[in-house]
Amino acid sequence: MSKPAATPPDWERYSADELEEAVRYHNRKYWIDNAPEISDPEFDRLVEVLRDKDPENAVLHAVGPAGADAESFDSETEKIAHDPPMLSLNKCYEEQTLLDWYDKFEGPALVTPKIDGVAATLRYDTHGELQVAATRGTGDVGEVMTEQARYVGNIPQSIDDGDLEVRGEAVMPVAVFRERFKHEYANPRNLTAGALKQKDPKKTANYEIRFFAFDLLGPRCDTESDKMRRLDELGFAVPEYELVERDEGQTYYDEVSENRATLKYETDGVVYKADDVAEQQRMGHTAHHPRYALAYKFAGDTGESVLHDVVWSVSRTGAINPVGIVEPVQLSGAMVSRVSLHNLAIMEQLGGDQGLTLGARVLMSRRGGVIPNLEEVIEPGDRPVEFPQQCPDCGAKTRRDNDVLVADHLEDCRSARLRQLRHFVSEMEIKGFGPKLLEQLYETEIVTSPPDFFTLTVEEMLPLERVGRKLAEKQIRRIDNARTVSAARFLRALGIDELSHHVSNILVDEYSSLDAIRSANPEELVELHTIGEIIAESVTTGLEENGELIDELLHHLDVEFPEDGDEEPEIPGSPLADRAVLFTGRMESMSRTQAKEEVEKRGGRCPSSVVRDLDYLVMGDADMEKFKTGWRTNKLKKVERYNNDGSQIEVIGESDFHSLLDDDDSLQGTLPIGDEK
Ligand code: IVH
To answer: Where do the domains of the chain lie, and which CATH numbers do they carry?
Structure first.
């Protein structure tokens, strides 16, 4: 097949043979060459058209990695047959299809987000021991990965029941991908597949894969909801689920679509299953999919565009980063015309041998429906992208330092400085310094670098536009309140690349002084759980380069580390160690005072209100149910706001809190809220 035209082909006009050829071609492009030429929704549409025209066509059973190339199905790996086969899902893209489907059975549907991971199955023997784990493979035959599954943190190795099978989806949580792998890998799904194929199963642990269960075979259950409850009781993590009637079907889809960024895993649609198992049996299945289930997929997450220009933006760390200007394209409901190209290395990689070119036809996406990303070049353009010789702002000469374009910016490189100041006040939680005020302070040379805030006076501020004495005094009080600061916050405020919330907490947990952190080398940091080489390198270099800034700030600031006493909990090794937990509302099983005591025994702390470095907000299970359907108190709104601002606060119910107390890694149904950045 030739390259696709700019507008997607009208598959309806193709013959079955042509469609079959197209399916084979694009399937191979996706799974083997790792270079898809059409978007996922477009591919799904192609398959649908073929299914309509020729439902028995053999290629319909071969869609996926195994169908793409029989040899890619590793011949050395042990196989098992799935009985019954692990079928696919029938897909749709519009409400009418969903409504027509609902008309075919009685009762509500159990609805879950469609998890974009690797389908897998777990068999437990009569004693409840995990006996075999396998991937879906072709659907009929899967690859055994029992030993690897022992290193998937939340797969129970033994359960209080036996002779049953649990099916679900293995994923790399979005947070793990973002923190550790996004620099080197295209997407979490491929990494998950790789993690489960590790020849040395212990290595699987390094990927922090998690398993979400959505099907139970063996025990008699009358409804899908019974299955979910039973899976939950047996200790499996299950995806968010709800019973939804026909007239609410679209609303629920819209909600998931809107909130998908708050889920732990990537999702590409919503799965509906008739809740009543007797109805399911009546409806039966085709060779491809059960008739009692339907996946309503999110369309429009990807789209084609043209790269018109690359502009260069000075980051707060002084790196000069490429930003693509593309023909505006509608993605997941928003117009996108700018896209970060990250750094020189990633930009070059995108362009292949000849590097990225202007005029190139490109595939754009919003990962998980949120952040715009240039996925790949479909057809190269005709003009090379030129790197600027000078900083677009201060004119300093640029040079390449590994993967990034840098410059020894002049003292007064405005963009870099303003960004640094903005980042500093935001991380230090010094409110009231909006962009206008900062610009004035910078231009009058009163504040040109973070330490200047701490010598700022009311009198210096008075001449500024729209600053009265009251405001000036308030700002000075705000600065004074920030003179004592937690070590983690201080580290983040430095604006060092990769020194995120997560990384700063790890450093503070691990070391007991700033000196110790500053003298750590990258090799040492890599030893710490969840810190990869790129992060380690970036953090150590950043700390070194900012040595002077740090010393100067320390003249004005009191940087606090958690006290020694906190470090030896009565109950060691708990996941609550060093975590900040806040309770809200009423809990059934214990009073707040008791709950606080339990957290503190485990080395955690309980701040008295929502703070930016809070880890968990715990509420009663009844409130949790309300929360899941959109109910928000002021505390919850604050959590949402902070999360949108980079915090990582998880909202959990009372039962999950108990799992944490019991040191149970299989936290279920936790709901991080807020847009991901
Ligand atoms: S229910 C056909 N629920 O999608 C069996 N499946 O594209 C019914 N999947 O093989 C499965 N998220 O592995 C169900 N919430 C979810 C799902 C889900 C992802 C997978 C499943 C299936 C594939 C089909």
So the answer is: 11-63 (1.10.287), 79-297 (3.30.470.30), 302-407 (2.40.50.140), 428-482 (1.10.150.20), 485-560 (1.10.150.20), 581-672 (3.40.50.10190)
